[in-house]
Design a protein that fits this description.
Number of domains: 3
Oligomer: single chain
Order of helices and strands: EEEEHEHEHEHHHEHE
Radius of gyration: 25 Å
Structural class: alpha/beta
Largest sheet: 3 strands, parallel
Shape: globular
Length: 262
């Protein structure tokens, strides 16, 4: 018997989002022994349960059963894969620079002084530096107006040296998050939060320009470990716009049967 269940845990909140996908496989192999005598109906045969081996005793209707199974779960090393991907991106950026003289630029807009948000932004800048991407940052105070944020987005939208724009979430409560995210041009929406990108992700035969990074990273990990998704059952816990919902859509695109629990 061979089957795999993938569990995606969406712990997204105002401060963080985490997704984990855990593959489980069972194969014939390692024996799991029960007690010498297991009371089973003597009508059971080996053909009834191909993964069971049966031994019968002439003087007893009881059957000794041995279940043959193995837990072959893989440990997925995200750090190792991330290092490999960064090496690949660095090489690609050098080729791009040599071929067309363009270096990708990523702009981040941070509003307020949340320590967790500041840490995320700092890590993004380090990642950019590591692979050769130019990084830009606008840090606005907590009491900034919504229009000030929109003005910063507009500036980056028009800047040809900026190819991607990230608005660090969460925003202060007095701001309209949907309005601000929708102001980012779809071709620079590297977070994949624009309704047109999400709409394309949901439709068969359409391709989004960008996909939210956390669920995209989970699918990439499965691909790089050669784990087949097609035909499997997947459970996604949570339905946030940032992780849960796009994770479910990506799994559907891989022909998994998806259940969303919330």
């Amino acid at each position: 018997m061979a089957s795999m269940t993938m569990i995606s845990t969406d712990c997204s909140s105002s401060t963080a989002a985490t997704t984990r996908l855990i593959p489980m496989r069972w194969h014939k192999g390692k024996a799991l022994h029960f007690s010498p005598w297991v009371s089973l109906s003597n009508r059971l045969t080996a053909s009834s349960f191909p993964s069971l081996s049966f031994k019968t005793r002439a003087f007893s209707p009881l059957i000794s059963a041995k279940i043959v199974t193995e837990n072959a779960a893989k440990v997925i090393d995200g750090k190792e894969v991330a290092q490999q991907i960064r090496k690949e991106i660095a090489v690609e950026i050098l080729r791009m620079k040599d071929a067309i003289g363009v270096v990708p630029g990523l702009a981040v807009i941070l509003v307020g002084d949340r320590k967790d948000s500041a840490t995320y932004v700092r890590n993004k800048k380090k990642a950019c530096e590591a692979v050769g991407i130019n990084s830009f940052e606008v840090h606005l105070p907590e009491n900034s107006t919504e229009q000030e944020v929109l003005d910063s987005i507009s500036k980056f939208n028009e800047d040809p040296s900026v190819h991607g724009i990230l608005v660090q979430l969460p925003l202060p409560s007095h701001m309209n998050e949907e309005k601000i995210l929708n102001a980012v041009r779809i071709e620079k929406d590297v977070d994949g939060f624009h309704p047109l990108n999400i709409g394309r992700l949901a439709m068969r035969g359409r391709e989004p320009l960008f996909v939210p990074c956390t669920p995209k990273g989970c699918i990439e990990l499965l691909h790089r470990y050669g784990i087949e998704i097609k035909g499997k059952r997947a459970v996604v816990i949570g339905r946030s716009n940032i992780v849960g919902m796009p994770a479910a859509l990506l799994l559907q695109r891989e022909d998994a049967t998806v259940t969303i629990v919330h």
